[in-house]
Design brief:
alpha+beta, 2 helices, elongated, three-stranded mixed β-sheet, 27% helix, 59 residues
């Protein structure tokens, strides 16, 4: 069963996302997620975060 989903990426540097983007794609494929993605570059996240994900999935 395919799942429709939306993933929002919040990050201070797009380089951090694209450096590991294949991990996100593999996860979405493994979970049969048909995704629509939004990428937002922000000035600051919590000190220990490089990328924040917000995922909404619907069966």
């Amino acid at each position: 069963m395919k799942i429709a989903g939306s993933i929002s990426y919040h990050l201070p540097s797009t380089a951090e996302l694209f450096q590991n983007f294949d991990l996100f794609q593999a996860w979405a494929q493994r979970n049969q997620l048909q995704q629509a993605s939004t990428v937002m570059e922000v000035k600051h996240l919590f000190e220990t975060l490089l990328v924040e994900l917000e995922i909404t999935a619907v069966k």
